[in-house]
Design a protein that fits this description.
Blueprint lengths: L2 E3 L6 E2 L12 E3 L6 E2 L12 E3 L6 E2 L12 E3 L6 E2 L12 E3 L6 E2 L12 E4 L5 E2 L13 E4 L1
Parallel strand pairs: 1-3, 2-4, 4-6, 5-7, 6-8, 8-10, 9-11, 10-12, 11-13
Length: 146
């Protein structure tokens, strides 16, 4: 299964729904989806990019952990929380812009993102674990905001 189009009738992606679908390279998520469950795409190593629809308000724990090929992610303007380890191990992730709507970021959310060069953190961020932005190499990392 390399590509999936989720139907408009779906309102949530269940926990571990696509976990370890190692051949999954692309997915289309409709605007009807409100939440992305725990480990929903964990270990989808070929998933290179995903656009999360504006209807999503939270990204659960480990939602995209170990998506090794994920190079870009668009976090919608209505997301208020990014769960712990949400993007941990996304080795190809280069840039992240966190919208003003985000209030909390869980522990190790962006840990082991070896290619991360730029992250924009909004002034609105109120609660984040001290390890949310723990990086092995910060020599190329640009942090904007906060």
């Amino acid at each position: 299964m390399e590509s999936i189009v989720i139907p408009e009738s779906v309102i949530g992606i269940e926990n571990a729904a696509f976990e370890r679908c190692r051949s999954l390279a692309s997915i289309t998520i409709p605007n009807s989806v409100r939440d992305i469950g725990i480990s929903a795409f964990a270990g989808c190593r070929r998933l290179a990019s995903i656009t999360i629809p504006e209807s999503v308000t939270a990204i659960s724990d480990r939602a995209f952990i170990d998506c090794k090929s994920l190079a870009s992610i668009t976090i919608p303007q209505y997301v208020t929380a990014i769960g712990g380890q949400a993007f941990e191990g996304c080795e190809s992730l280069a840039r992240v812009t966190i919208p003003e709507s985000v209030r909390t970021i869980g522990d190790r959310a962006f840990q082991q993102c070896a290619s991360l060069e730029s992250i924009t953190i909004p002034e609105s961020l109120r609660d984040y674990d001290r390890l949310a932005f723990a990086f092995d190499d910060t020599s190329k990392l640009q942090v904007k905001g906060h």
